[in-house]
Amino acid sequence: MPNCFSCPTAALPALALGVSLGIAPLAASGDTLIRLAHTLNPADARHLAAEHFGDLIAERSEGTIRVEVYPSSQLGGQVEIFEGMNLGLIEMNIAGSTHLANLLPSFGLFDLPNLAPDEDSFIEMLDGEIGQQLLDMLPEVGLRGLAYSEVGFRHVYTNTPVTSIDDLSGMVIRVPGNPVYNDTLSTFGARPTPMALGEVFTALQQGAIAGAENLIGFYRNSGHWEVAPYLALTYHAALPSVVTVSESFWQNLSAEEQDMVREAAIEAALFERRLSQEQTELAMSELPELGVTIQEVDLTPFAALAPEIHARHRDTIGADLLDAVAAMMD
Q1: Tell me: the pLDDT tens digits for 276-293?
Q2: Are residues 121 and 54 in the same domain?
Q3: Nearest to 249 by CA among 50, 96, 53, 34
Q4: Domain check: are 193 and 264 in the same one?
C-alpha cells in the first residue's frame, strides 16, 4: 500500500492550505526562501533552535538564503505540513519521530517503551549507525533528514493524580497518534485518543480528555499545567524530533548550499538539545511553585509490559533494527 504522503490525493488539503494562506511555490529569483513550519509554541526549545538555524543560514549565505519560521501550526497541523512539503509550499519542518512513523513505520522504533536504559544511551543510538539508518530512509517519502534534536523522556500529566500504573486504567489520554503509541498506552491501561497538539489545552480544560503526555519542558511552556496539574514521571518513551527538508527542494540546492544547510541544521539541533535540558531543569524547579504535583511512580510494571509491546511491532518496525538496538544496549 503506498504511503499517504506519496498519494496524489494527499496533496489536496495542502493545496487548499496554500491557497487559504496565500502561500505559493517559490518563483525563480536570485535568493532562496526556506519556510520552516512546525506545530510548537514560540517558547519551545525547538522553535528557538529553528530561529537559531535561520540566523546561521543568513550569516553563512550572506543573505542569499532566508529562513522564515512558522510556529504554532500556522501552516497547519503535522499532516498538512508534510503535505505542504510534498507540494513545494513548505521547505522544512521539525517533526517528532512519532509523526514520521506514520510515513515510515520503522520510525516507530522510537515510540517503543524502555528502548534505552538512560538518556545518554538513547543519544548514542541516535547519533550512531541506527539513527543514520533511519534518516537514510526518509527520501522514500519525499523528505531528507538532517539532524535529531529534542532528546528527553516523556511523562504523563493529568487532571487527577496518577500514583501508579493502575491509576491510568480507563483514563482518556491524548497521544500524537500512531499504532505503536496507541498500543503502548492501551497496554498501560489508558484509553489513547489521537489529537492535534493545538487542540490539547482546550480538550483538557473542557474535560474531553483526562490527560496527555510529553516532555517536561513542553508541559511547562505550553501552559498545559494550568489544566492538568498532576505530573507523573513515567519515563515511558524518549522521542526525538527530526529536522527535515523537502527532498525536491534539497535536490534543487547546490552541493555547497546543501552542506551549509546540513551543517547549520546539526548545529541548531545540538543547540536545541542543550536548551531543552536547561528548560527541563528549570521547569522541574518552577512547576511545584505553580501548584503542580510531581509524582514519582514505580516503573517496574511499565517495564514488565515493554517486551510484549516490542514483540507486537517487531515485523512492522523491522527485526534488524530491534536486534541492533538490543545488541547495542546489551
Answers
A1: 999 899 999 999 999 999
A2: yes
A3: 34
A4: no
